[in-house]
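Lecture notes, part 5. Sequence design as translation. It can be helpful to think of inverse folding as translation between two languages: the language of shapes and the language of residues. The source text, in structure tokens, appears below.
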């Protein structure tokens, strides 16, 4: 099986990835797996979003350059539990196995698949709870009469009339006003209806 191994150390002072790499190479050798590439991030904190070598690993995974990924420990690989689960879901969708030596998790075995299933269920529950909290918050806001979403952009109706008289398209007008063509059109149409209604109301009041 073609295998990629990943190692990370937080700082360059007194820390070396060699211990992790020795363990990972030894494991792959015992399994009879061929290591096709080693990805090593040195001097990078666990909370850091950008990890060059990890990003390269993910890119190679999508290209199916290997069949398995082996890491020394979950926290050497993932920034958080949610990041770990997303990565595992990605590997599963690509048909790539995942092994963490310290936690003894191996998705190529029945026990490892069970662990992944449990982690996936926890992640799904978390997403459901977050979604329900968001929906509850929106319902509460609506009940209190709060306006949701971005406030509509005002459209300069006088400017629209001038531009239209000059033959400008709605796309050009939207660009001029800093809004989309649709926003310019519907905003102008709404203002036109408002003005017509106001004019009709004044005529009725003077009749």
């Amino acid at each position: 099986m073609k295998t990629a191994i990943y190692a990370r150390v937080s700082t360059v002072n007194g820390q070396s990835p060699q211990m992790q790499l020795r363990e990972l190479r030894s494991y792959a050798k015992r399994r009879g797996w061929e290591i096709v590439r080693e990805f090593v991030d040195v001097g990078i904190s666990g909370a850091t979003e950008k990890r060059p070598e990890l990003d390269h690993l993910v890119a190679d995974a999508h290209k199916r350059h290997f069949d398995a990924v082996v890491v020394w420990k979950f926290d050497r690989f993932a920034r958080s539990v949610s990041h770990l689960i997303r990565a595992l879901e990605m590997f599963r969708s690509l048909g790539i196995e995942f092994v963490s030596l310290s936690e003894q998790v191996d998705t190529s075995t029945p026990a490892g698949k069970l662990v992944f299933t449990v982690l996936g269920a926890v992640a799904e529950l978390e997403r459901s709870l977050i979604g329900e909290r968001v929906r509850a918050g929106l319902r509460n806001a609506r009940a209190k009469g709060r306006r949701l979403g971005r406030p509509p952009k005002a459209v300069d109706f006088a400017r629209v009339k001038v531009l239209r008289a000059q033959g400008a398209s709605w796309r050009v007008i939207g660009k001029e006003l800093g809004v989309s063509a649709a926003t310019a059109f519907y905003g102008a149409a709404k203002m036109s209806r408002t003005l017509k209604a106001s004019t009709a109301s004044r005529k009725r009041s003077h009749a």
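The translated text above is only one of many valid answers, since several sequences can fold into similar shapes. The radius of gyration is 29 Å.
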